């Protein structure tokens, strides 16, 4: 399940005298440390290794072009919902993008192994252009908070004007249904932007990241400035502010930190709940009725294991490094 990307780094030899088997490298970020990755990549680029097997997550971190890319599956296991879900489109595009070696290949070759029911979708996806939509509205709070801290936005009208210069605004007029607009007239757009600004700024005010004066002017508060400076989610800084105090112990600190919004996407692998259940018996601070498919519970356990210097499997160690890097 972890190895879903096969790259043929060089074209097959045409001479029948080349009968030696191709060298191969099983390459997994869950089991390789950064030093091993840096050591192995030059062997791939130089041609010493001709076939590489890589995990889906690695496709974003390696700078390697291949003669042929084979995507072994188009789904991955989401432990949070206990189900297999499709790869995001951008992941598939990134994998396909590794096909075609510059100055060596005239065309890129990619094989996608998928269910028969999805064959037509991938044909359409690969051969026809897809619209690129804005997701700015999904992270509007942190975006606005940063702009308020830098004084780019000083009132609600500034916020509305700012949005009219974004890609989000351009796509709203082209694909209104995607953004839940009833129409594309000036009134529809104005009402939608005003509602978006009002709701976003209201949430930031409730989180004590900004202040709103006379129902119009906005100014940054300490929490907002801290969140913008350290790139912290506005809900995370609110959680820290409400939960931390001078009497908070280590157990409480770990619990508060592990509930940060930044850890919502920590992966839960298939059958990993058994490993986490065993780990929960070893950590010093026991959890009450933990849900082992919850990324925040996994974060809590791995933080405790890290602080206790416990030996972990390569996969859990990789997840620990991801947690510590956030």
TrEMBL record:
GO terms for cellular component: membrane; spliceosomal complex. Pfam families: Sec63, WHD_SNRNP200. InterPro entries: P-loop_NTPase, Sec63-dom, WH-like_DNA-bd_sf, WH_DNA-bd_sf, WH_MER3. Residues 133-214 form the MER3 helicase-like winged helix domain. The keyword Transport does not apply. One of its GO terms (molecular function) is ATP binding. Keywords: ATP-binding, Helicase, Hydrolase, Membrane, Nucleotide-binding, Transmembrane, Transmembrane helix. It is a multi-pass membrane protein. It is found in: Membrane. GO terms for biological process: spliceosome conformational change to release U4 (or U4atac) and U1 (or U11). Gene3D superfamilies: P-loop containing nucleotide triphosphate hydrolases, Sec63 N-terminal domain-like domain, Winged helix-like DNA-binding domain superfamily/Winged helix DNA-binding domain. It comes from the Eukaryota. Residues 220-325 form the SEC63 domain. The keyword tRNA processing does not apply. This is U520 helicase. The gene is Snrnp200_1.
